[in-house]
């Protein structure tokens, strides 16, 4: 599987935001690692390979995404201006203006090596599958 720089950096950004969200929910690294273990077990992923990546992402700002990256890569990945604005605390119009001014000069810079990127993509695919577990459809409890 050959990944573009956009796909590689988007996976890193998604994993970074997973780490942030988990840290906001449970402000304990051990609990986050328990969640990572569970996802790895379900997805048949080597947790000993992904844990150091996640621990580094929790402590090193090098992996932090910028608004620019989220907007420019997110738009290429199909996110709407509204959803990106909501995520970033911006208006839809602000996101659209940002896109119009910056799109042509942007080239993403992945932070991890290609093998790590493949690992985190497998992790993210497992997370995507898990988010729909137990969903019975619209209006179940109305």
Fill in the keyword field for this structure.
single chain; 142 residues; mainly alpha; 7 helices
Task: Describe the fold and architecture.
This protein is mostly helical. 68% of the residues lie in helices and 0% in strands. The chain has one domain. The chain contains 7 helices and no strands. Helix 1 packs across helix 4 (67-76) and helix 5 packs across helix 6.
Overall number of structural domains: 1
Major beta-sheet overview: none
Q: Radius of gyration over alpha carbons?
A: 16 Å
Shape: globular
Helix content range = 55-70%
Nearest-integer average pLDDT: 87
Q: Distance N terminus to C terminus?
A: 43 Å
Structural class: mainly alpha
Helix and strand succession? HHHHHHH
Q: Count every beta strand, where a strand is a DSSP E run of 2 or more residues.
A: 0
Low-confidence regions: none
Please tally the helical runs, counting DSSP H or I stretches of 4 or more residues: 7
| Relative strand content | under 5%
